[in-house]
């Protein structure tokens, strides 16, 4: 039942916001999201670390179409649910210094977004998954459209149509699989797995691509990424955070839950192609990040590079790779959130995001610059920060998969250092200039947001084992299923 | 004899129909069309549908074409007011119609294989017979036709009436 | 009595604690408290290290190791890495050097950084560095070593860019970090290959299985690991960051860029000696790289005018020599030279710092001269350092360098020749530096000379201690030929036991050794004479832009290597990135995506003219469509 | 007895002439008349079939077609008059504001 | 059947009202009548009854379509109250609309070609007049004129088709024709197929499938907005119901003879109107194109030719009609406050009238097929049906065109939320607020609980 609570509570709160339009919508939303966080923590404590699906709820919904409201949580889902519930209050808190027009609408949309995101992570019915998948798109579209920056009309529309295009193709694939299920057809995940595995290699390849393109666009993986830098740049900061810190994980989660166990032969046949694409993406996006002049855009590209590594590691289909992807998802979520928040703080105070106009902030804002350094180090995967654990596991799985690919993917630690250090140097170091001379250091409220992030960066970096344990069994389950199946068809 | 009559009536009908299309003056078009309708009425008689032929003449020649003439007179259209279509368009129209004729006739194959279910007895077109069908089997359509005419009447009045400003 | 586990953990934890205390309290601590905390933390570590060292000494030879496991760090998918420490002879020696020299430099820094606004920050970084360095040498598995490895790189970055207002310093810091990262990638890949092939990251387990793994794999692993060493220990081709790293405060140069961090590569190779021994190809590579670096850096140092740059190139060169020793399989010799080098190079740097401090930041030796009488302690200690590095008996450098040369000769006289040349060049530029700084006319401006003063106690005492160490440090491994017991070799024997078992050991006859020593010492003395004549007696002072001939100019410009790298790596990278951004990203991929959308709009613009409003046209289309429909069905 | 296909062809011919007229002329009144001609072609074949099949329904259907034709003409001419009132033309292509 | 009579009666009553001075209460009376008729028709659910010598057949298909037509008409009357008030021909208009609804009911319940034909003609003739009911407006004139000329031209083809089919099968009765076809499948004369195709032309003209759609955008754009709403909802339901009944029930045995044509038309209907709509700046015209585009998705069901698809069609039409009504209601409200239908009118509507903008957004989202709204499930079921029959390429094409659809629907949303406007907000009456709210709720309910409708409507 707690799963259902997690899904309905934000929706309820959002509806209340829409209807009541309370004056202090911020606080209202924060409290709502904290309740949600509490619920998810309770869930995490009740969770038994094995490979079963827990807290499952299955209610008939659209029986004639074989669609059930079937949700449940395993280790993989739980981690992502936690990521969502932890980040959403922080995202809301990070907006406290801003006054958005029509704020109850804004926060309502954020809460609906949260519901949809959690829905994606807990859905155990193909159709339900798709439904939440699309529902996540709508609030974020409006958040970007209404409160975004310049040129948002065109950019957000491109984003919407691009991602919708991918997901519609995924829907076609899901329906195709649905008709392969026995009897009166069902969207139940296990039935879909069976159906997917029953397909011929050629059909699996088709389904693979149909699903992969949807996920690839969402993540985004090279070369399906071009909507992303524009959208991240133009979206309001909280929107960018939602997009990059949580929503992007939907794509990766989709790969783990809805692709690898679904069409194993397709994954085997095409895995290499995807890994190569992802690895190209790592280098490609890193290179582009090096020459970016807009900080927000730079972080956007860095995100592409990081996600490329996650996707590549995931597709090696090893326990190391998937576990690495899990931990890296969490790490990337908090890091990219912090990164965008810092960028937001800087651009709020200086009214610019151009690296050329910044500089010397370290002189006047030591706390901010220290936090920046820590986040930056996490982002370049320095050991004992959260970034390292994931990147190490991922690169390790890639090296095992193919040494050269692993080595090329490893370039990320060099290229990442290049663009991150450059960013830090240009924005923080040096002498202050006219724009940055009056820069104020972090306020209390900003510290409240950033300090937990810093703590999380180190906690995940130093003692990731408890987190890894949560998803360990579920991951092993997938890998074993996969390898058993792969063996059986050989 | 019947066949000769058929040929004659067909020739008249087609010839008059062609003249409807090609005559310059709308009034003469109307008159040619009335000739074509009479030819068609002749065909009805030929097929033992005398009642229908009579109704046909009354409705078409008597009512509809008079309405046409009336409107032409009302709008004072009996002159070559119509701007000519370019020759190219006319040519295209002719080609199109020709092609349409070819495919239509070409697709109408198989009529010769049809075997009449009953021998024509000449009773079908009698008023008695038709009336029976119309007021039993086709009662509802008949009533609906009244609705149709009512709607047309209301509509025609509504549109045709000039509004007091 | 506290457990040994706790004590072991205490060694790295104390500096961490110091770091946290200093860093988190921000500026609220006074300079005094800060220095007490920072120095105290390192001092405690040092004392514990000494205790651990004595524990090891008292243990029988085959049980000279202590371990402590704290917790599982990463554990997933049948792979685990724990936070666990290993204290064996090698790491305990490293501990002593790191904490010992580290402590001295901490103390020195109190005086050196006295009036700097970033005093607290500086000490927090220093403590953090010591923590990571200890992690590096104490980690009982590769991953923990990697943590330290990256961590010291980070601290190096932070300290090089310590004066962050100067963007040139920041450039140098970035350069150091990125070059290190290139090496780190090699190391990381090596570590990954190890865990793949050995199934474990624990040293003990890996070494136990070493002989069971395919030699080619071992070669690949060792080469990758060595790439890491190249980055960290500034070997060709990744050395250019080290001279630039002199942008940092001088104690940093002494601690990080001379005594400890840059020797991490040496430590790593020695730690993995069994793997290297199993891979002759890698050893050859190490020799070649080491020799090339030693000679190359030495030649550059000849023409440098910045006191710290000379020392930096000297460090590069000396590290090259150490690697030569490692490549020759003389692992203990490498460690020996590393230890002595730590003493005298730290000393030299601190002296240089003292000079710079006295001259208010002046680093150009062309603007020094005649400082002998103003800075007596510095002068004397510097002399000790110079003598030590030049290999004059009985100073520390003599024994260690002699051992390397002896091993080189034994392996191949050509190697010996080149190594000798490099060490003779060292003698030349060190004495050139020494004479230019302390002898001759006073070339500093009047204003500067007016304020000149000998360094305070806190700076002088470490100088003296280090000078003593430079003087006596060599005695820990006096060779048998000189009636010594080669104590250090004995002590380290368990570490390299596996390698020793695999290698045939040739020993040079004592006669040959004496002859070699004689040759080296006589050449050294000749060079000292030449240098004295040129710089002290004739007051020759190099003038910028006065290089006669291409070779000199090339040397002065460090072989244009920076320019070369800039031309073939940095600029192309930016060029490619720019092109990727402009040409591929915007003009190809994004354009393609937009074209899809654009074509719909374009198609719409065209298609709407189909709806041209004319009834005649509509009916035409209808009739034509009907014709087509009927045609289709007729044809079928 | 005239064979049924003769009527088919005759009807097709008249129908085509109607279509030709619609395509060929621009005068709305002539176009209306041509449409009437098409409907008559249908009537003709309907009666022919009715006769041929000996089934009165076909002829009854013709009544409905006539009713509809009458209704259409009434409404059509009303529309024409309305349009003429506003544009002073019966050219089918003149009123051409709604496009694209 | 009673519903048909009630509507007829209401039509005549409207005419009488002019004389009896009941004008004031006419709309209310009509709405009550519609509800009553809908209630009566729902009572017939589950039974199959034919009336008047098998002229009409009220089976579940007819009942559900009739009910939908009545419900749509009810909302239509609600939204377009001012189309009748303060007009000189109030009662005439009302009567014509009611006659049109009568025709529409005939079109979905016919069991005889005569009924189909008369139904179509009653509907069409009323609409020719209604399209031109704004007599002063040249646009309205043009719409009526175009509609009339092209409509009667298409009627000619439809009749020719009926005649040929009559000739080949000897009957006008749908059941008999279907029986005759299946028993004489091998001995049907060639002109029978010509008849089928000519009927296809006539019927696809009525549902406005490409290439017989040309009248639709112009007529929709030219007619008064309320009439456009009527055409794109009630008329579309009736036309598609008739089309589906004829082709999927009656001519199902000769599926192969016409399915290729329908496939080609499906492709064209998906592509051309959807793409053309992208460039439209007049929302009414854009909705007209979109309305044609939606026919493409419905045709996909006909192509798939599965049993039980009528439920899908009905659901789709319901979803589409509700969203369309919602959109047109808002368009009409804007027109009522003196604004036009150009895209610029919608600029900044969100700032002026947030609720209005949100409602229009929901309409657009539903039309675009965004989950979890009703429009999405409509499209989903269509795609699923087509996929089940293996028409993957067609489905992918349809996916592509619905993306294009998203583009033009979202243009409106972007204008409302993104652009700025200087206009002032529009006051809404309680009645219009209520209808907007009901329609929005219906869109959500249909989307969230489609099962209720699907299971009941899985007819045949």
Q: What profile does the largest beta sheet of chain A have?
A: 2 strands, antiparallel
**Uncertain spans of chain E, ≥5 residues at pLDDT below 50?**
none
Got a strand count of chain A?
A: 2
Profile the largest sheet of chain E. 2 strands, antiparallel
TL;DR?
By secondary structure, chain C is mainly alpha-helical. Chain C contains 25 helices and 2 strands.
Explain what the structure shows:
The complex is a heteropentamer of chains A (490), B (165), C (636), D (100) and E (460). Helix content of chain A is 75%, strand content 3%. Chain A has 490 residues and is mainly alpha-helical. Chain A has a two-stranded antiparallel sheet. The model of chain A has no long low-confidence stretch (mean pLDDT 91). Chain B has helices spanning 2-22, 26-46, 50-75, 87-107, 127-137, 139-160. Chain C is mainly alpha-helical and 636 residues long. Chain C has helices at residues 4-25, 31-58, 89-112, 119-138, 142-160, 167-198, 203-209, 215-232, 241-244, 250-259, 264-271, 273-277, 280-302, 307-327, 331-358, 376-390, 396-411, 413-438, 446-450, 457-472, 487-502, 510-537, 549-556, 561-607, 615-635; strands spanning 66-76, 79-87. Chain C has a two-stranded antiparallel sheet. The longest helix of chain C is centred in the last third of the chain and has 47 residues, at 561-607. The relative contact order of chain E is 0.09. In chain E, strands 1-2 form a two-stranded antiparallel sheet. In chain E, helix 1 (2-20) packs antiparallel against helix 2 and helix 5 (90-109) runs antiparallel to helix 6. Chain E is globular, with a radius of gyration of 21 Å. Classes of the chains: A mainly alpha (490), B mainly alpha (165), C mainly alpha (636), D mainly alpha (100), E mainly alpha (460). Chains A and E meet through helix 5 and helix 6 of A and helix 17, helix 18 and helix 20 of E.
SSE blueprint:
The complex is a heteropentamer of chains A (490), B (165), C (636), D (100) and E (460).
Chain B: H1 2-22, H2 26-46, H3 50-75, H4 87-107, H5 127-137, H6 139-160
Helix pairs in contact in B: 1-2, 2-3
Chain D: H1 4-24, H2 28-53, H3 57-87
Chain E: H1 2-20, H2 23-43, E1 49-51, E2 56-58, H3 60-79, H4 81-84, H5 90-109, H6 113-131, H7 138-169, H8 174-183, H9 190-207, H10 215-222, H11 225-250, H12 255-278, H13 283-304, H14 310-336, H15 349-352, H16 354-368, H17 374-388, H18 392-418, H19 430-448, H20 450-457
Antiparallel strand pairs in E: 1-2
